[in-house]
Amino acid sequence: MPELPEVETTLRGISPHIQGKTVVSATVHQAKLRWPVPEDLNGILQQQNVLSCSRRAKYLIIRFQTGILLIHLGMSGSLRIFRQDKHTPPGKHDHIDLLFDDGTLLRYHDPRRFGAFLWYPGAVETHPLLTKLGPEPLDTEFNAGYLAAALHKRKGPIKSALMDNAVVVGVGNIYANESLFLAGIAPNRPASSLTAPEIALLTETIRSVLQRAIEKGGSTLRDFVDSEGKSGYFQQEYRVYGRHRQPCLQCGTPIEKSIIGQRGTFYCPHCQQ
Question: pTM of this prediction?
Fold first, then answer.
């Protein structure tokens, strides 16, 4: 599933091509996604200008004069930019096309159809899917003091806490594994057992891992490509994720795998305590 770095990569890829431009048409080829695409999406968006493009957690937000378009890539979704006179006919898994006044086409592609394309005639802060989210891991609000308070009474595994969007958004499975390894913290440790120095280090490793992944364009996931159809490269730097039974890059101990919160969890039993 595309995680924060992949969604941020998508945002940076599409924003320069659509911000400030006017929608000429919105064509829905397949309306059955995770939630139904609004029936009158064309009538809603036609002749509206894109005021801004942003991200909240793993949601992409395109703001117009009368509301916002909320996009989630689901498990296999991607947004592609086709420039003027270089449009190709939609394929089997191309579900939505937004055409802009300069000929730019924004296309939503989603083989598994578990993503979302939702219209909301209100402010971003009041959308029901966004109101209970925790802070962004790259914002100053996410710091050691905040994380210590959030973990204080949590008895469950630290990895589960990091993947709880009420604690912090966007730290999905891949990046939780990698961050915990760099911080030297076992993923099954009770969240409340972390010391102040461990929390401070973990806060910094989460931030550095996500920033590095964004620089690399995210990871090559099963179906993820960016707005130009390119895959990310952060997977070449994985230290534990997907490396079950391979030697730890720090100590040589075989990487182990367990299941925490129904997700595959990779760790070094020697380096992570």
Answer: 0.87
